[in-house]
Amino acid sequence: MHIGIAGVGLVGRVLALNLLRQGHTLTLFDEDTAYGDNAAGMTAAGMLAVFAELETAESVIFEHGKRSIALWPDLLEQIGIADAYQQEGSIITAHPQDYSELDHFIETLKAKVDEASEIELLDKKALMQLEPDMEQHAKAFFIPHEGQVDAQRFMKASSDYLLSHPKVTWHQKIKVDEIKEGQICFAGVCEPFDWVFDTRGLGASEQIENLRGVRGEVFWLDAPEVNITRPTRMLHPRYKIYIVPRPNNRYIIGATEIESEDKSPMSVRSSLELLSAVYSMHSGFAEARIVNMVTNCRPTLKDNLPAITQEKKLTRINGLYRHGYLLAPAVVEEALHGGILK
Ligand SMILES: Cc1cc2nc3c(=O)[nH]c(=O)nc-3n(C[C@H](O)[C@H](O)[C@H](O)COP(=O)(O)OP(=O)(O)OC[C@H]3O[C@@H](n4cnc5c(N)ncnc54)[C@H](O)[C@@H]3O)c2cc1C
User: Fold this and answer.
1) Residue 324: CB within 6 Å of ligand 1?
2) What's the CA-to-centroid distance between 201 and ligand 1, angstroms?
3) Which of 41, 145, 259, 267 is the most exposed place for a label (fewest CB within 10 A)?
4) Which own/partner contact pairs does 332-335 have at CB distance under 8 Å and 24+ positions apart?
5) Domain co-membership, 138 together with 172
6) Hey, CA dihedral for 185, 308, 259, 95, is it positive or negative?
7) CA–CA separation, 211 vs 3, rounded Å?
8) Domain range for 176
9) What is the Å distance from ligand 1's center to 209 Cα?
């Protein structure tokens, strides 16, 4: 089939990689360049927090999350970056005054899924064995099976792969105005395809009812004095932060969650909260260098769950909210095998 994809952010890329494996020919459209600097998929930390997200999510997120974790290694292998995947588990901790909140969080997870019984309480000694650099903390939990995809490497390597693929044509900097039965329309013309996909994230809000943006802000810090190797969260009554390690002592610190579609630069309040929380997590962050501050919006539906909608010769995939990396491979698999392009 000759297939058109409108929107080549995270979901569009995962979809394109799957469709190429099935032998289809693709034409991609994005209003951005092929390097996707404005996609939410480029801002994301890439955490695969299959358990930790359960506190506020439905168990469908857990099931799709587990499936995606199984699918990511092959996708990354396909584009030559198998080492951009890490699945060594994650750590969650809190300040001593918030331990009851931490215990409650873990109890909530355990009440939701049986597999959460594998979450392990760590005393200071056990924590030091796993993460020697977290000596400031006396109590934490180890969450097995969680991991991360290096989101920025995924975006770059998938661009290179798709741009050089003989079965892919990529129309960059083209704003798609409408997508209808087998057609993608831009600049007053409609191009016909055997099938089309709408994966424009928040850019599809005119066509998808109740689609909204949820603002998120992240820091990138270079911290030579910090050596944390696993994604690590800290619970706090007012905010939740995570630290996601990348190579060469770089850490992604995130993320705020604000009901707004404002993509303007980070606010003073958010920067104070994120940076003071990260400093209280490890004093070595005091001398870290701020190398980037990024803001973007998560495409979110009313129920905060992803949705696949099928029309004639058209599939829309949207609403991946704060779980894009956690869910995209499984949601795309469902879209492809659930009916149309078997
Ligand atoms: C701060 C932050 C941190 C996050 N951290 C995580 C995390 O740790 N783990 C996790 O699982 N998820 C995380 N996410 C969520 C994840 O990034 C999103 O769920 C995911 O990127 C959504 O994918 P998408 O393809 O629908 O949208 P996007 O990635 O935004 O892609 C949409 C694409 O469509 C294009 N487009 C839009 N409109 C048009 C148009 N009219 N014509 C042509 N092209 C168009 C855009 O240019 C873009 O390239 C985070 C998100 C944010 C903002």
Assistant:
1) yes
2) 6
3) 259
4) 332/11, 332/14, 332/15, 332/18, 333/18, 333/67, 333/71, 334/64, 334/308, 335/15, 335/308
5) no
6) negative
7) 25
8) 1-89+146-211+301-342
9) 18
Q: Are 306 and 323 in contact (CB under 8 A)?
A: yes
DSSP per-residue letters across 207-262: TSTT-EEEEEEEEEEE-TT----S-EEEE-SS--EEEEEETTTEEEEE---BS---
Judge if 296 and 306 occupy the same domain: no
**Do residues 153 and 276 share a domain?**
no
Query: pLDDT tens-digit profile of 219-236?
Result: 999 999 999 999 999 998
Asked if 127 and 166 count as a contact pair (C-beta separation under 8 A), the reply is no
Residues 102, 182 within the same domain: no
What residue type is 302 in one-letter code? Answer: K
The runs of H, that is alpha helices, within 138-193 are 151-164
Strands of 178-180's sheet in order across: 178-180, 183-186, 189-192
Choice from 18, 27, 31, 206 to test ligand 1 binding pocket (greatest atom count within 8 A of CB): 31
User: Can you tell me the distance from the alpha carbon of 2 to that of 72, in angstroms, rounded to the nearest whole number?
Assistant: 25
Q: How many residues does the chain have?
A: 342
Q: Which residues of the chain have pLDDT under 50?
A: 339-342
Task: Provide the CATH number for the domain around residue 205.
Answer: 3.50.50.60
Pocket test for ligand 1, best of 27, 35, 43 (most atoms within 8 A of CB): 43
The CA 207 to ligand 1 mean position distance, Å, reads: 17
Whether residues 7 and 78 share a domain: the answer is yes
pLDDT of res. 256: 94
Ligand 1 midpoint to CA 280 (Å)? 30
Q: What local confidence, expressed as pLDDT, does residue 22 receive?
A: 96
pTM assigned to the model: 0.96
